[in-house]
UniProtKB/TrEMBL annotation:
Pathway: Cofactor biosynthesis; tetrahydrobiopterin biosynthesis; tetrahydrobiopterin from 7,8-dihydroneopterin triphosphate: step 1/3. The gene is Pts. It comes from Piprites chloris. This is 6-pyruvoyl tetrahydrobiopterin synthase. Its EC number is 4.2.3.12. Keywords: Lyase, Metal-binding, Tetrahydrobiopterin biosynthesis, Zinc.
Amino acid sequence: MSPRSARLARLSRSVTFSACHRLHSKSLSDEENLKLFGKCNNPNGHGHNYKVTVTVRGEIDPVSGMVMNLTDLKEYMQEAIMEPLDHKNLDKDVPYFAEVVSTTENVAVFIWENLQRLLPPGILYKVKVHETDQNVVVYKGEE
C-alpha cells in the first residue's frame, strides 16, 4: 500500500430520548409567553421523543481504520445526553434549564457543551436535534 496523505472523515451516531418541557421565558409576562409560544406554553408542559445525531470528524487512524471508536462515542453520548435528559422534565430536572428556555436550540447547545467536556479536543463537528420530524436544529458550536 502506498503512503497517502491523511484521510479525513465524519462519523455520526444517533440516540433517541423522551422528555417534557414548557416553553416559557421568565423575562416575559404570562400574556407575552402565551403569544410567543402558543400551545407550547401550556403550564403542564408537553413531551417529545427527541432524536439526536452527533457527528465527529478527524483523521482516519491508519492502524484502527477509525476516526473514533463507536463504543467510546456511545458511552460519551450516554453520559452527555441520555443520563441528564432521558425521561426528564427539562425545566424542573435539568439545572441548566432553570434559567434558560428549553427550546430545541438550547437543548442542542446543552448537548454540545456536555459533549465538549468529554470528547477529545477538536473532534466534535455537529449536533443535530430533531424535536419532531418537521422541526430540526443543527448546532456546530460558535463558528
